Task: structure prediction
Amino acid sequence: MKIKQLLYGLIFLLPGCISSFNLEHDTNEYLLVVDGKITQKNTPHELILRRSTATGSTHYNPVMDARVTLYDETGNYENYFPADKGKYILEGNVLDRAPGKSYYIEIILPNENTYRSMPQKMPEVIKPDKLYFQLEEMEELNNLENTVIWRYLNLYINTPIFKNGNDFHFIWRMDHAYSFTELFCSPLKPPAVCYITRKIQSDDIKLFSSEELSGGKLEHFRVGSIKVFPNWEFFEKHFFNIAQHSVTREAYDYWNTVKQVAQSTGSIFDTPPAPINGNVYNINDPEDRVLGFFEVSAVDTIRTYTYAEDLEPLYIADLCDPYDWRTWGNPACCNCLEIPDSQLEVPGYWGFVREDE
Amino acid sequence: MKFFFSIFPLFSLLTVTFLSQAQVMEKISITGNYQDTNLSNIFYDIENVYPVQFFYKKEWIKDMRLSIVFQEESILDVIQKLTKPYNLNFLIYYNSIIIAPEDILNQDYTREYFVIRNRQKNLFKSNNWITASDIIHLGDSTKEISAGQVVIKGVIVDQLNEEPLRGVNLHFEALNMTTSTDNAGKFEILLPTGYNLVEISYIGYETQKIVWEVSGQEEIRILLAPDAYELEELLITGETDDNNVQSVMMGITRLRPQQIENLPVFLGEADVIKSLMTLPGVSTVGEGAGGFNVRGGAIDQNLILQDEALIFNASHALGFFSIFNSDAIQEVELYKGHIPAQYGGRLSSVLNVKLKGNNGDKLTGKGGIGIVASRLTLDGPLQSKKSKKNGNTPRTTFLLGGRITYSDWILKMIKDPDIQNSSGYFYDINAKISHRYSGKGMITASYYQSYDKVQFSDDYGFSWKNRAASLMWNHMIKPTISSAFSASMGDNTNLSYEPNGLKAFTLTNGLANFRLKEDILISSIKNHNLSTGIEYVRYDIFPDELAPKGDQSRVVSESIAKDNGQELGLYINDEFTLNYLFSFSFGLRFNAFQQLGPGTEYIYPEGEPKRKDTVIDSISYSSGEAVETYYNLMPRFSMKYSLSPSSSIKFSYNRTSQFIHLVSNSTAALPVDFWLVSGPHYAPETSNNFSIGYFRNFMNNLWETSLEIYYRRLQNVIEYKDFAELLLNDHLETDLLSGDGKAYGAEVLIRRKKGRFNGWLAYTYSRSYVRIDGDNEEETINDGEWYPSNLDMPHNFNVVFNYNFNKSSIFSLNFTYRSGRPITVPGSFYMVDGVFIPEFTGRNEFRIPPYHRLDLSYTLKRNVIRKKRYKDSFTFSIYNLYARENTYSIFYRKSLTTGRNAYRLSVLGTIFPSFTYNFEF
Result:
């Protein structure tokens, strides 16, 4: 059967045969990586300073004890506070952040090396009109080369595009949150409800530039796609939160390039890879290469949610079924905080009601 | 006494000869006493007493008298005493002593003279098959040139259609010499009087072995009959068996279709370009990549002509096959070393494909049925049988050929629904009609069209089309002056599309061209083949057109105009044979190129990076207005020095320029790539090409060997900025870079040309570098240092082996090895916003693993004897016998445990058996 797969490669030049490859070409030079963003929202913002790492490693050395400051175009500033593992937190209660204003950060490392980001003007906030989901089936091959049908929960957005001389650039970032209710394990402790929120990471970065389309409205644009298993996570209310970031042209170009590199399949269609330049630089040493990007964006979040019945005909079973003793052994059944990323605090948006309800 | 020539002025060799013969002669001692005796009488006396013979012309020793006494003196001393007073010289060959004035002796009566005389004498002893009917008397003895040498001129034509045959070998065994017919089927050779056994051979024709009894100058016409059998010779042929040694040109390869078919093939499709890749100096960046690379040059540096029409995309199925239908091809020439001055506009090579279509004998057909494609080609006369019966030679002939794929059935067998919903398809058509008039010329019209379409599921697709039409008029103005005029036009259009959704679009680009060319060939000057001509080419580059597709699409229509161009070339070239040792080719080509509007030239500040936001001014040009003009003078020179009849060394220098460039920022060419003419921001690319080679044949040209070393230095090569945006970019210069290139290497070829076992071994050492050292960091790559280009693959090794079990079955083997090409790899990884990102280091600092592959094929032919009109064959091929997963590229995928893992992509990572049924009638 392999030959058929390779005929596929013959005709379409898509991967005919892919296998792992032991590539030992590590440099010993691990560069400063800046990973952070600010928006107009008056909530804490995080910035992470790390060093790049060797091939095959997920351990990134955090950069501690740096002084990080956010500046606006008039010289006003607000300091970040160091947290653990190279994280620095901007409380967001000193410096006003608003569309139309320019911002940059300054980072001073313990060795007094000083870095700055290129100033970026915060774009206007564009509010999306609608977020909705569709359950769609897609055929795929499994490892045994048998065709299987997977259900995907695809999220679509409608959003306006204004073309009054300016182009708009969007990046969509998604998280999902769902609740879990404990079993009645003890008369002394009523069952608690936990709320689990997780970011959905994907190399399929969702980007859009209004340069590509005429004005009006961006409709039925897919901003997320989740393969749906008969998973307990969908047993109760399951939120999908889409943050629509209006970003600068520079940020759009950066993420577009990251997407190209991240999604490279090595086919002959691919553009030759190259280093990705961010927007942070060493003010004294132009040879000191800095990785990453400090993003200044305006965000608006839109959400929708599902119940188990929305996913029919899939049958969704709960993690802990009171009628099935075999499921009771899970410690989360009696203490939902055992579930990673869980909290007891009800997210502020939990009362949101979608249009069709 | 009349003697045979040989222009063999190597006095040193004569001296060696003399000394070696003299060692035998010196044992003869002579005694004599002569007083005021005529020299001829002295010789006569000596001849009568001693076992020696003197040869001389009476007038050379007329009135020479001597008084001299010998007493037991060596004959050598005696002869020296006899000849010295009158400035005569002598030469000894066995028991013959030639006496002549010094200058004549060196030129005419060399050792060769005696060798040939001796061989002529023994001709009938060693060839007892010769009968009176095998002897042809040539010439009038009054037209002898000098010293027993005469010029024999002639033309060799196909016995059936009287089409002149180029490259026919005429081998004179006694002379150990081979000559060949030129483009008009003509030859000219200086022969000794007497009997000359000549073997006339040409691939696909019966070999004639005949004796010419030469007594004077003569012009003859020779008819050669097509061979009764399928061909057995090899893939590659030069014009003659020893053309690689004797021709002043180096680095020229000619293919004929029958030879291409012997090679193991991929999916049963014989392919010209894949065949070329088994030769030294021709390579590819990987399986499935379109085009070919010659001596470290990009694919756009090859000038591709089919029946004098320009071809801009020679690939089917994105590069797995070439557009050339091997059944319709008469001959393929590849110039990769020395590019004659008649060709211009490309840096690295010229691939000249000539189609059949001059078959005036009878309707013939050729075709095949394979697992992915079928083909059929017909050619023959257009006259009725009646006119043939009346003895009229058919004057108008035609060719009609085509290929078509049906690969979708394979796709439907694959379980993946995306593939089942996909399609791949191509066809091509060749049509040609020729008319011969009054024996002096021929008018030919040729048309070619090809179409490809590839669609992957509902996601995206490509299609591209080539059209080329040409009109050729070959006319003999005088027997020694002929003219070749051609007018051609064609276009290449590409379409890429996304069929569905909001972003559904079509994107088109392409170009049209129009070309006029006139070549004049003059052979009236002895030892010179003079050619001169003029060429005009017009390039109309189509704009990049983006348009929405379907009602749902919200894509904004966009059109980016491209500049046009026109090129005028004038050339003169002379191939000149100075003597047996030295041949030269001097050429000079002048090219003028204009970039034409409409267009806008953007001005950027000197020394600063070119960016859209750094534009300081712009100049608009109307349609047809000259934007920029370039003039280039391109000398072409090559020379050959014969070390012996079977070995030579050659040197070549070429300067080439290129005014049109394929803009492509992927490793292999894609249908979305487009052509760009030179202009203010992209000066013409130029290349200075030097090569030197040693050529040596063994065993009467059965074995051919060569070593060529080359060095190329290029200016204004185009490179790309990182992540260059090329499509729909109206400031393309902001993403392109210009720099220097250099390539050097050595090519070795050892091949056995004939016999039951034949084949070759080709090794190429090839390096290719680029240096982009701009005015600023943004326009500099790798700190302005030389770095390996994508085509830098140092070692390339090919073995082709054919074994003919008998006339009807052939086994072939092809092994290929080449170094991996350079790639850019990451030195570290980092994470931003949850995305793992590789940090790539310097461009092309790493190299993928080497490529190697073994292919086999077995061909069984039926009805190989001539009486059976219908002949067919079955070819079973195995491509990539040991299923090597050759790495095409390296890429990275997200891994939960290790961040990102490296993976390699093999385009064809398994064994590919195929079966083809071929037929002809």
Q: What stands out?
A: Chain A has two helices and 21 strands. Chain A has a mean pLDDT of 84.
